[in-house]
Amino acid sequence: MPTMDPTDFRNKQNSLAKAYARESNSINDTPLRRFLVLAALKIWKTFSRQLGGVTFLPGRICVKYSSLAEASTLQFISQHTSIPVPQVYCSFIHKDQTYIVMQKIQGEMLAHGWISRTAESKAKIHSQLREMVAEMRKLPPVTCRVSNVDGGILYDGRIDGPMNFGPFENIQKFHQYLRGGLAAHETNLDDVKELIAWHDGTWNMPVFTHGDLSSLNILARGDKVVGIVDWETSGWYPDYWEYTTAKQTNPFNLFWKDEIDSFLEPLPKAQAMEEIRQRYFGDY
Prior knowledge:
Layout: H1 6-17, H2 31-44, E1 49-51, E2 54-57, E3 61-64, H3 68-80, E4 88-94, E5 97-103, E6 108-109, H4 119-137, E7 154-155, E8 164-165, H5 171-178, H6 190-199, E9 207-209, E10 218-221, E11 224-228, E12 235-237, H7 241-247, H8 268-281
């Protein structure tokens, strides 16, 4: 396999991409709202429950420390689909920290009690998730770029390299980045040759993707899905990305891997290619 420095390649690509990356805007950002949010956090943060970068305040309000792009995504999904997501009250940046003030959805993670659900209950959940994914697939992309909702930088801590990366002119450029710049070459291993040929093939336009449809990010009350949360890894991606990212379950979510094919179209070829990529070009 040809020798190259994938870290240098990724850093260079990310630096070049900044030239055309679009910035996400804040939402309902006023001096009064900023003051009230920061004051509430100062008063309540010591006593409030915190979980995964989110502070839960009284009155079914929570504050997530994420990115303006995630807030923009929540607003986009709310405006263009019927997928249940937290309502964003405001978002802003203060002293290099992003604050998303949003609704706390009353529901329980599917991870809690899934094993004890009946087959009928699980089927109802699967059906709702299929409909929600179908709605996302109908969202028309503006360009062929792989990017966040606003055409800007993506985020994913599971990909080898910087957690913030891109955007990319097209899917092939995104794939090249995932491989650390490795190009087709006669000395590549056979499975790597197969991967690159697949990566460099013809692709449909990107589709909007959540990027982490874990049972930890899906909230339900009874048999009704009432919330899809944690959209920080979302964006316009190749059409297989939702499936292969969902298949990469964390140690607290291993049982969910067996549920993926019940609400996402099984893509064995894509999964096989992703496993090759992960083997040679990163843990994920």
